[in-house]
Design goal:
Helix content is 75%, strand content 0%. The chain contains five helices and no strands. It is elongated, with a radius of gyration of 21 Å. The mean pLDDT is 90.
Amino acid sequence: MIVYIAIVVMFFVGIYGMIVKKNIIKMIIGVNIIGYALNLFFIVIGYRNGGIAPILVPGMTIEEFVSKAVNPLPQALVLTSIVIDLSIICFLASLSIRIYEKYGSFDLEKIRRLKG
């Protein structure tokens, strides 16, 4: 139960970083923290105490395999989520670099004032 609470706290720390902070880099870090929280949530969902890899071994019955094997779907979702998070972070970083080149600042308040 404590792991779920830690995941929720981590998620809301990322939300706080996205909404409250005015620096673009800190907002990107908030997006990254949200991605880590979601990956951790998927990993916790797929965990089974005393579980084995989802590979059928000769001599093992189907009932024994089903009762002990972990679900591989959350692991696949985490791998997909890592790739999506990486592409989003790269896009946001390149966008922030272009904003810095144009306005000379990462602060959103300064950028709004310079927009005219």
